[in-house]
Amino acid sequence: MTETSRTGAIRDINGPIVTVDLPGARSGEQVKIGELGLFGEVISLAGTTAVVQTYESTDGVRPGEIAVGLGFPLSVELGPGLMGGIFDGVQRPLEKIALQSGDYIRRGISVPALDRAKQWEFTPNEALEPGATVSGGLVLGTVQETLTVKHRILVPPGVAGELEELAPAGDYDIEASIARVRTAKGHILKLSMYHRWPVRRPRPYLRRDDGISPLITGQRVIDTFFPQLKGGKGAVPGPFGAGKTVVQQQIARWSNADIVIYVGCGERGNELVDVLESFPQLDDPYSGRKLMERTLLVANTSNMPVVAREASIYVGVTMAEYYRDMGYDVVMLADSTSRWAEALREVSGRLGQMPVEEGYPAYLASRLAAVYERAGRVETYGAGSGSVTLIGAVSPPGGDFSEPVTSHTKDIIETFWALSKELADARHYPSIDWVTSFSGHVHTAAQWWHKEVDPNWERRRTAALALLARDAELSRIVNLVGPEALSDAQRWELEGASLIKEGVLQQSALDDVDTFCSPQKQFALLDIAITIYTSGAELIAIGVPVSELQNLPILAKMRRIKSMYTSDQMDQIQAFRAEVNSAMEEIRIEYAKQGEPVLS
Amino acid sequence: MVKDAPGVAFGDRVRIEDYAGGIRNGQVIRAADDAVLILVFEGTDDLDLERTWVRFLDEPVEIALSPELLGREFNGLGEPRDGRPPILSNLRRPVAGSAINPAARTYPREFIQTGISTIDGLNSLVRGQKLPIFSGSGLPHNRLAAQIVRQAKLKDEDTSFSVVFAAMGVSYADAKFFRDEFASSGVLRNVVMFINLADDPPVERLTLPRTALTAAEYLAYDLDRHVLVVMTDMTYYAEALREVATAKGDVPARKGYPGYLYSDLAEIYERCGRIHQRHGSITMMPVVSMPSDDITHPIPDLTGYITEGQIVLSRELHNQGIYPPVHISPSLSRLMKDGIGKDDTREDHPRVSAQIYALYARAQETRNLASIIGADELSERDRRYLTFADAFDARFVGQGESEDRSIEATLNLAWELMSSFPRDMLTRLKETDLAKYYTGTD
Ligand SMILES: Nc1ncnc2c1ncn2[C@@H]1O[C@H](COP(=O)(O)OP(=O)(O)OP(=O)(O)O)[C@@H](O)[C@H]1O
Ligand SMILES: [Mg+2]
After folding, report:
1. How many C-beta neighbours within 10 Å does residue B192 have?
2. So what's the pLDDT on residue B393?
3. pLDDT (tens digit, 9 = 90+) per residue, A237-269?
4. Which of A55, A68, A168, B404 has the most neighbouring CB atoms within 10 Å?
């Protein structure tokens, strides 16, 4: 126990909400509850009485047992050793806990997040000489945390002064002093390779910048149709089984981020195991290294205590900001923010606060907004530009998007990938509905695509969306009067839309060839599908019957080509483009020979 | 509320004796230093202040565990219901259980053949999965569950499952159906039953699944058995929970169910799975009846958000005389992906499943269209879908109650049905699949 800890006594236990007599307690302070030593946090104060929310079940705790105020708020340890790990909602390392307490998590267990014994090879920042002025966020040196991630050791925010000594290159544990700083007041501070940060306080940065480049996820319906920017905020709402988790895991696998933080918040244990078992085997398409080396998991599964679920999002986002401060592009995935909101509701209900909608407290919207606000692209203090992209799954009860969590989230985010039950039921994955989804970043993304891939990107994208809109319209007509009422040109529009849906939008995460799709392949598929449609439409305009086009083998191939060739086999895909052109040309020539059209 | 009860712990069990000597059960739902608040499960009617005795049982609900459990029948507290003596064992465990550390889990990936085409072919079950049956009143979910219990086995392996059967709030007839079922198929020696009938105390319904799962964990992790847990009906469990929550004055979320229904159900369902270095496993098949056949009702809805898929039964198919009336569109198995394919079932399996789904979805649209404009107005292409859907419902979905189809038979049947379409319409399949299995004339 630290010198700042104080003891008091438990007065009242109401589920996870415990009232204690604890003179001098501060709001947000960590408190150890009872003989079991359960951790909790002060959420309100009245005189010497503090109300504490505990992160573990309080079964068996008795009034009169001891309560210890620890003097600091819920904080995380930030330093080398986080990458590749799995932590619970209050940053306890689950792998170490398994060693200590077996297959089940014992209550009251306390293990620090970072390994104290491990030696890290520290390389000092050569630009720093003793006597240099240093301040929060400055890079003191680096540690190769994993083969992929170079961990920049930062001066903790709030520290400033003159550098008296910087440790030479060598192996150090995280508690060893690697720098000495003399503050303006003459205090000497010893800095080690890690520091703590209170999770509910956003980490500081120099200034906020606009996002400029898209987060490439390798998923066509996202990158091509509803793009996200690095530093953006997005939501994936959808009913159960629609594919929220798969979308998030696909982003965790294939996005061009430097760091991925995956927060399983109130969801299934097996989904985290899936990541834990598969990521160490999978290659990052950008670095060629194993995906687990850039990934960190936070797990508060649905059977774990509800209050820690509320904390898990903050724990995740604070670690995300920390890597951002090293100048990295970080993606944080939160599955599911609805479970987080339910944890808020649970606590507020116990406190007897007035519910406003479906039992949720009035502050739901502002808390949600505050969490998403921690996303963004920033200029860091000492490591250039970095970003946190935050993507949250939303699990609306009954799939009803008008419920409070979905509707508030929709007001906050910029990218909305709405999953549809109808599409999922037809096994059209990802089941992102092209009618109700949106992205506020198309214009910015277009600049990137036009420069890096093809200047026609935005035009093709618009053409595809127009075709899909026509499809919806025509389907309504068919449903009223039957397909016979459609003209050949209209039938060809339906066929074109179907090519976009099956040949471009649909992308199975389970297909080894197509699970990741490079921007070049994305554009090529879109472009070829649109080419088939437009040249077919021209042929129909000169009288070619639609049935002749519908029998073309290139249509089936357009639907299959995505799974035939990987992103590295662009030659074959371009060869298919030539095949399409010559098939169409052949009909045109044959038709010109025949002269007058034969009506079908 | 009881004053002056020092040292009482939160969550403690309470036994209350009223003036007439009747015993009621309760639990401490709030413990303060000057008073405790007790929830009396059977209600406080007729309790008076002078003549009521309260005893705090300083222990959580526990169950005695030994191999003798097999073949026996208990109530929700683990007390015998079969007239035989209680289990004698030094090994007792609290039924509440604790959370499995996700880092200790192993991802489930061993295909279980149930012999039912709509499950094996399209929504495969794997060892350690929780896959509920969503049903409605009068639908044959019990018969389906019993058939799965009879037939479930690992492919090419004969080891059978031990079964933990948990019945909550069901009728005497339903309980008897299962008991007879287990007896006649000769598995009774391998079954532990926990039964709470519709007219038994509803409180016991709340501990029953936990008691049953504690037994399942013992069989799986102490005795290395593969356990199949059948729980029926989780809807009655949730209703009992609502009753208690309302009595406690908890803030309701939807339809009067407490906001913590999700977490409470998850505590139960997440006890299933596979754990590193343990030989046994727990696979779960809960039955959830959907009130008014409404899948968006909070109970099926929250269940679907927790379980690893669902098998949905349809009244429409049932009324057409199709057994088992599995509606494939809303049915799903999330753990199928790692349990099927080349090394587990057959290499074409994942794509066959995707293709059947795509065809059936299109066929459903066509059925809707036909009901509006009449089948005669359909194009030849569209009519093909109708024929396919009818054949599919009758032959692939429909099967005998004792028909145990191998996965090969299921996949071959799927190919036979798909082969009524020209190759070019089967774009979810690879050319190599078509070359090998396609039997159409195109
Ligand atoms: N992109 C995809 N490719 C292939 N299959 C997919 C894809 N998306 C979803 N699926 C299928 O759908 C299933 C359900 O998806 P997922 O688990 O992501 O749903 P969810 O929306 O997260 O549901 P819940 O809210 O219950 O967690 C997956 O197990 C997988 O079989
Ligand atoms: Mg999910």
Report:
1. 23
2. 97
3. 999 999 999 999 999 999 999 999 999 999 999
4. A55
> To the nearest 10°, the Cα dihedral for A238, A240, A245, A250?
-70
- Give the mean pLDDT of A109-123: 94
Cβ(B418)–Cβ(B439) under 8 Å?
Answer: no
CA B78 to chain centroid: 20
Average pLDDT over residues A452-464: 97
A478-483 contacts, C-beta under 8 A, 24 or more apart: A478/B369, A479/B368, A479/B369, A479/B372, A479/B373, A480/B372, A481/B373, A482/B369, A482/B373, A482/B377, A482/B378, A483/B377, A483/B378, A483/B379, A483/B382
| Residue range B219-234: mean pLDDT, rounded | 94
Top-level class of domain B63-338: alpha beta
Over residues B356-367, mean pLDDT: 94
Q: Number of helices (H) and strands (E), helices first, in chain B?
A: 12, 22
pLDDT of B2: 62
Q: Which atom of ligand 1 is nearest to the CA of A267?
A: 27
Distance B307 CA to ligand 2 centre (A): 10
More confident site: A3 or B120? B120
CB-CB under 8 Å, A269 with B6: no
pLDDT band at residue B5 using 50, 70 and 90 as cut-offs: low
With H, G, I as helix, E, B as strand and everything else as coil, classify residue A210: coil
Query: How far is CA B429 from its chain centroid?
Result: 32
| Closest Cα in chain A to B362 | A426
Residue owning tokens 């798969």: A246
Delineate the domains of chain A, giving CATH numbers in brackets: 1-73 (2.40.30.20), 120-193 (2.40.50.100), 207-442 (3.40.50.300), 457-599 (1.10.1140.10)
ipTM: 0.92
Q: Is the CB of A135 under 6 A from ligand 1?
A: no
- Lookup result for tokens 């500081």: A204
A478: phi then psi, degrees, rounded to nearest 5: -55, -40
Q: What is the pLDDT of residue A600?
A: 45
Q: Provide the β-strand partners of residue B92.
A: B64
Burial of residue A542 (CB within 10 Å: 0-12, 13-18, 19+) is exposed
The encoded tokens of residue A444 equal 């910015």
Q: Residue A62: beta bridge partners?
A: none
Tell me which chain A residues have a C-beta less than 8 angstroms from the C-beta of B341. Answer: none
| Residue among A248, A428, A429 whose CB has most ligand 1 atoms within 8 A, to mutate | A429
- pLDDT, one tens digit per residue, over B182-206 is 998 888 899 999 999 999 888 889 9
Those of residues 68-127 in B touching chain A at CB distance below 8 A are 96-108
Sheet architecture: strand order including A139-144? A150-154, A139-144, A120-124, A170-172
Task: Provide, as residue numbers in chain B, all residues whose Cβ is less than 8 Å from the Cβ of A483.
Answer: 377-379, 382
Q: Which of A72-86, B5-19, B172-186, B421-435 has the lowest mean pLDDT?
A: B5-19
Q: Between chains, do B301 and A483 touch, taking CB under 8 Å as contact?
A: no
Measure Cα distances from B411 to A193, A345, A595, B118, B418 in Å.
58, 47, 49, 10, 10
Quote the pLDDT of residue B109: 93
Domain spans, chain B: 12-60, 63-338, 349-437
